């Protein structure tokens, strides 16, 4: 007997949103019902057609189409948000319908994130600014290693594409959770040809330990969202992060010697 597919609605169809949508379309466990974007471009077309598939999945809607009845008439199990900080205002009503939320927005204003977090009272919400599996594994593994070797010297190196002006938010988060001063221990490199790379270097007497994660394609965000959706579908209410998932997996999969 086949398992019921998880119905997905996606906010955002820009450079990253298109890649994320494509990853969900290729996964047989999911059914992309619709995609909402800010403009009227490709209105009522299908994301699947725009991405080169012959079948019709992921009807394209504009934010202007979303009213109080939209989520009742176009019900999904999970909304995946790769749009903008203001996207949460468009799907706020979805939480009341019990639709779960995955937000991968990197920058929220305080009032925006406060609204997102309030939705946990109605449904399950997962918020991770960097939703790739590797980065979140890196976050947990670095904390474990710091506990094991508390006297190690630690440096963080983040490498990104040439046009990225600001320091990586992920690198700053790593520094924060490890209790490091960002101005002293976060090193940034900007060169062409790099999507994103984070390295945490632990310096010990006579040895170094390096934890490295590198993204070669933005499709990694789609794989992270799929990983998160498979986990979140089992939750009813609450606020979660990708780190919660990794910790859960660590606890379930630590080998017994």
- Count of discrete domains: 2
Q: What order do the strands of the largest sheet run in, or round the barrel if closed?
A: 3-2-1-4-5-6-11
Question: Which radius of gyration do the C-alpha atoms yield?
Answer: 19 Å
CATH superfamily assignment of the largest domain?
NAD(P)-binding Rossmann-like Domain
Shape: globular
Poorly predicted runs: none
The sequence of SSEs as H and E is: EHEHEHEHHEHEHEHHEEEHEH
The CATH architecture of the largest domain: 3-Layer(aba) Sandwich
- Structural class, please? alpha/beta
Describe the SSE topology.
Layout: E1 6-11, H1 15-26, E2 30-37, H2 47-50, E3 59-62, H3 70-73, E4 78-81, H4 87-90, H5 92-96, E5 100-103, H6 110-118, E6 124-127, H7 133-148, E7 153-160, H8 169-177, H9 182-185, E8 186-190, E9 196-204, E10 207-215, H10 219-232, E11 238-240, H11 242-253
Parallel strand pairs: 1-2, 1-4, 2-3, 4-5, 5-6, 6-11, 7-8
Antiparallel strand pairs: 7-9, 9-10
Helix pairs in contact: 1-10, 7-11
Primary descriptors:
257 residues; alpha/beta; Rossmann fold; Dihydrodipicolinate Reductase, domain 2; 2 domains; seven-stranded parallel beta sheet; 11 strands
Task: Provide an overview of this structure.
The chain is of the alpha/beta class. The protein has 2 domains: 6-127 and 219-253, NAD(P)-binding Rossmann-like Domain (Rossmann fold, 3-Layer(aba) Sandwich); 133-215, Dihydrodipicolinate Reductase, domain 2 (2-Layer Sandwich). It has 11 helices and 11 strands. The chain has helices at 15-26, 47-50, 70-73, 87-90, 92-96, 110-118, 133-148, 169-177, 182-185, 219-232, 242-253; strands spanning 6-11, 30-37, 59-62, 78-81, 100-103, 124-127, 153-160, 186-190, 196-204, 207-215, 238-240. The strands form 2 sheets. It has a 7-stranded parallel sheet. Strands 8-7-9-10 form a 4-stranded mixed sheet. A hairpin with a 2-residue loop joins strand 9 (196-204) and strand 10 (207-215). Helix 1 crosses helix 10 (219-232) and helix 7 (133-148) crosses helix 11 (242-253).
């Amino acid at each position: 007997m086949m398992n019921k597919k998880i119905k997905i609605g996606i906010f955002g169809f820009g450079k990253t949103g298109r890649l994320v949508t494509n990853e969900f379309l290729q996964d047989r466990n999911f059914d992309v019902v619709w995609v909402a974007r800010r403009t009227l471009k490709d209105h009522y077309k299908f994301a699947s057609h725009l991405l080169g598939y012959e079948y019709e999945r992921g009807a394209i809607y504009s934010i202007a189409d979303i009213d109080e009845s939209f989520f009742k008439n176009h019900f999904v199990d999970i909304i995946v948000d790769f749009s903008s900080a203001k996207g949460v205002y468009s799907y706020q009503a979805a939480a009341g319908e019990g639709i779960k939320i995955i937000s991968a927005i990197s920058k929220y204003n305080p009032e925006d994130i406060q609204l997102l977090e309030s939705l946990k009272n109605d449904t399950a919400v997962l918020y991770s600014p960097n939703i790739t599996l590797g980065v979140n594994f890196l976050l947990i593994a670095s904390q474990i290693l710091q506990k094991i070797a508390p006297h190690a010297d630690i440096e963080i190196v983040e490498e990104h594409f040439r046009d990225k002006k600001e320091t990586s938010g992920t690198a700053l988060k790593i520094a924060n959770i490890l209790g490091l001063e960002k101005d002293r221990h976060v090193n940034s490199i900007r060169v062409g040809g790099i999507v994103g790379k984070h390295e945490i270097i632990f310096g010990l007497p006579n040895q170094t330990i390096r934890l490295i994660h590198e993204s070669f394609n933005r499709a990694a965000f789609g794989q992270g969202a799929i990983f998160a959706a498979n986990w979140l579908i089992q939750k009813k209410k609450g606020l979660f992060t990708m780190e919660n998932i990794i910790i859960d997996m660590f606890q379930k999969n630590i080998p017994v010697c």
